[in-house]
Amino acid sequence: MAAARLCSLPRRALCRHVLGSVRLQRGYRGDSPTESGKDVLEIPLPPWQERPDEPLETKRARLLYESRKRGMLENCILLSLFAKENLNRMSEHQLNLYDRLINEPSNDWDIYYWATEAKPTPAEFENDVMAMLREFAKNKKREQRLRQPDLEYLFESPR
Length: 159
Known about the structure:
The chain is built from seven helices and no strands. It has helices at about 1-5, 10-20, 55-70, 75-85, 90-105, 110-115, 130-135. Helix 3 (about 55-70) packs antiparallel against helix 4 and helix 3 (about 55-70) runs parallel beside helix 5 (about 90-105). The longest helix is centred in the middle third of the chain and has 14 residues, at about 75-85.
């Protein structure tokens, strides 16, 4: 009789009946203090620092790498294609602005939302490179942007 009654209960009610007051928690608590009320430990990122003595070719190579290796696929595609099209013709000042743009914000979604104009860009990132990225994100040529560019273009002679 009891088994028939349990089988007729909806899944949630069955779990509540079987598990009783057991609470299941999701996420990794890490070393987060229990009084913080946070389920996940937040790890602070080191502050962005400008590299004034970095040679331009090294900076371009680093920015290309950092444009390709993001925390989210949307930015990997957007920034790697933007870098392919623009890094080689950017001035040193523009490279520094781009470096700050992709490395200072701690949340990649912020960069994506600013580039796609889903959220307003903060004043400290509002510059000509951000305008270039916003224009690029509009994809006025209707190019198919489904993956990052292959790296063979690095070995082609400039046009």
